[in-house]
Design a protein that fits this description.
The protein is an all-alpha fold. 79% of the residues lie in helices and 0% in strands.
Length: 226
């Protein structure tokens, strides 16, 4: 029976980010900061600002366009906040965050009847990969990709595969970043536990040695008095 490498990513533990609670404040903040920074950089790479500008140039009722732009802004802010506050949250809180982000990301596409805008759901799906069990996150991602493809086929008669590729590629890239950070965090937590165990074992060894020395000394003193 093979034993799993402790350095190996474990899908069974995902998304247990509780190890952050046991780390020093500096390590905990650093780890969460890396995740939030990766999310922010990804948001900047596809630039939801450009998406908002694109929506502003689209044809439609001004009120609808303004509402869609506001949703895009809230969506970007929400993704960064979820990547920071999501890992230590309870299970229901994590699921609620993913649902809210998914609604914020998908509503502009529905309002403007543009399946291309569903590509922005890559960020919500990435947060889902971070906060949900993998099987649930992967099913959500698969449903989103299939939904976008079908909507494109029905609305335009063809599929913009570049948009689908961006949806899949960016989601996979961010999911990989989260998995690496998850693995590194668990490895650091394991090392800290090993250090604590080593210290405790050394204390126990010293205590046993002192007990033996004191016992021997008392036995010697008792025999000499007798």
């Amino acid at each position: 029976m093979s034993t799993r490498d402790p350095d190996e990513f474990s899908a069974g533990q995902w998304p247990d980010w509780s190890f952050w609670k046991d780390q020093p404040d500096s390590h905990r903040a650093h780890g969460r900061g890396r995740v939030a920074l990766a999310t922010a950089m990804a948001l900047a790479s596809l630039t939801l600002i450009a998406r908002a500008e694109n929506i502003a140039r689209s044809t439609g009722a001004p009120l609808v366009i303004s509402f869609a732009i506001a949703l895009v802004v809230c969506y970007g802010i929400g993704c960064v906040l979820a990547s920071w506050y999501g890992p230590p949250a309870l299970r229901r809180g994590r699921a609620a965050m993913v649902v809210v982000l998914f609604v914020l990301g998908a509503t502009p596409a529905v309002l403007l009847a543009s399946p291309n805008y569903l590509t922005d759901l890559t960020y919500a799906l990435s947060i889902g990969l971070m906060l949900l069990p993998l099987r649930h996150a992967l099913l959500l991602g698969l449903a989103t990709v299939i939904g976008q493809i079908l909507w494109m086929r029905l609305a335009h008669g063809e599929v913009a595969w570049a948009q689908v590729a961006i949806l899949v590629g960016v989601t996979a890239a961010l999911g990989t970043v989260f998995a690496l950070n998850f693995t590194i965090g668990h490895l650091r937590a394991a090392r800290e536990q090993v250090k604590r165990l080593a210290v405790n074992q050394e204390r126990e060894r010293v205590a046993r040695d002192m007990h033996d020395v004191l016992g021997h000394s008392l036995s010697t003193m008792t025999s000499s008095w007798g």
